[in-house]
Amino acid sequence: MSKDDGISRQQLDQQQAQRDRLAATMLGNQAAVQAAQVKLSFTQIRSPLAGRVGIRNVDVGNFLRVSDTQGLFSVTQLNPIAVEFALPQQQLPVLQTLLRAPTPAPVLALPSGEMATGTPLAIGRLLLIDNQVSEQHRHLACQG
Question: Are strands 122-133 and 51-53 parallel, antiparallel or unpaired?
């Protein structure tokens, strides 16, 4: 008998056993759901950064190994993005002055061929002047 004599001890034990079985079944079902979620996660390719995906480097049917260094495709980060561009060497003194300024100099990225007009594609700041000088241009880098 139970403490309050409502049901027999045998019925109480059966009910407790059924409760334990159902709790174990529920835990097993939760584990099955979690296992399915892990398996599903292997069917998706996620990038650690937001950007634009390039042309795929691997096609269906190619043989891949874990040790392969070539990725399936490339992802180019767009924000923030680093840009290199070339300017005439005569601009070097102006650029050096801008680089020494207390606040970074703004840099506008304009569509090709629209030097004085057009809406900027992006606005960034001048970070460094590369030490390589070609015969015609000095390379610059900025980040937006």
Answer: unpaired
Which regions in the chain score pLDDT beneath 50? 137-139
Predicted local confidence at residue 23, as pLDDT: 96
For tokens 């610059």, name the residue: 140
75-77 and 82-88 beta bridge pairing: unpaired
> Rounded to an integer, what distance in angstroms lies between the CA atom of residue 55 and that of residue 74?
7
Structure tokens given for 122:
């992006």
pLDDT score of 50: 87
Q: Could you tell me the two tokens for 96?
A: 């050096």
Predicted confidence at residue 143, as pLDDT, reads 56
- pLDDT of res. 137: 46
In Å, what is the CA distance from 113 to each residue of 77, 90, 109, 116? 24, 21, 11, 9
Residue 134: predicted pLDDT = 61
Please list, in sequence order, all residues whose beta carbon lies within 8 angstroms of the beta carbon of residue 72, skipping any fewer than 6 positions away.
45, 56, 57, 58
Q: Where are the beta strands (DSSP E) in the chain?
A: 51-53, 75-77, 82-88, 106-109, 122-133, 137-143
Select from 119, 94, 125, 120 the least CA-distant residue to 107: 125
